[in-house]
């Protein structure tokens, strides 16, 4: 996997590798750091046809918002499955009672999307590395690659995002997410994307807000 397989674009113009801070690591893996640009980063990320993109970060960091705005029908978000089930259930029924059904529905939809061979963008909570492993194997079986897009925001920003959406996580769960996402960010900053990832792109909130589309090239 080389730099030309994963493009970073702003509008219709390619950003030179040095401006995007793109670095090719051993085995051809690419790391791009698009943070600290004050919103002047690329507007479009383009990947190869049929590749799989995982968007990860803290709860409230803006993953679902980014998918809905930029994935253009290619996004697979567990939040969508939860909202569909919430609409069916009595309002007083605790989510914990039907959470297993939501997860089954989410992973069934993700499995169907992977089987289709189309490029997909997947919401990842960051704490379940087995999901990235499954996605990497699924992509490799069809000769495609897995890419990580990682939102790096402060805990205070993430908590504010939870308040804005009116749905938070427990202190215990948030601490677990902080540890998992912190390890991911540190590994990517050190040039070590997770096993199975052909590339990793770091975004802060400004860079994520500037991103208008996550897309895929036409199949040859």
From TrEMBL:
Domain of life: Bacteria
Pfam families noted in UniProt: AAA_33
GO molecular function: ATP binding
Keywords, alphabetical: ATP-binding, Nucleotide-binding
Official protein name in the record: ATP-binding protein
Taxonomic path: Bacteria, Bacillati, Actinomycetota, Actinomycetes, Kitasatosporales
């Amino acid at each position: 996997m080389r730099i030309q397989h994963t493009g970073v674009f702003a509008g219709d113009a390619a950003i030179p590798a040095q401006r995007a801070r793109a670095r090719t690591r051993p085995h051809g893996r690419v790391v791009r750091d698009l943070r600290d640009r004050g919103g002047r980063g690329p507007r479009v990320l383009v990947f190869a046809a049929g590749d799989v993109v995982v968007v990860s970060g803290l709860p409230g960091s803006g993953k679902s918002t980014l998918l809905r705005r930029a994935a253009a029908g290619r996004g697979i978000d567990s939040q969508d499955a939860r909202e569909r089930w919430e609409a069916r259930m009595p309002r007083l029924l605790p989510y914990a009672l039907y959470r297993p059904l939501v997860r089954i529905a989410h992973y069934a939809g993700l499995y169907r999307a992977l089987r289709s061979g189309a490029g997909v963008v997947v919401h990842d909570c960051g704490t379940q590395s087995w999901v990235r492993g499954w996605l990497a194997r699924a992509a490799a079986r069809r000769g495609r690659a897995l890419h990580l897009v990682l939102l790096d925001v402060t805990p205070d920003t993430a908590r504010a995002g939870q308040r804005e959406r009116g749905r938070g996580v427990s202190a215990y769960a948030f601490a677990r997410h902080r540890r998992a996402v912190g390890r991911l960010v540190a590994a990517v900053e050190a040039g070590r994307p997770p096993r199975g990832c052909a590339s990793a792109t770091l975004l802060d909130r400004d860079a994520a807000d500037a991103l208008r589309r996550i897309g895929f090239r036409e199949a040859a």
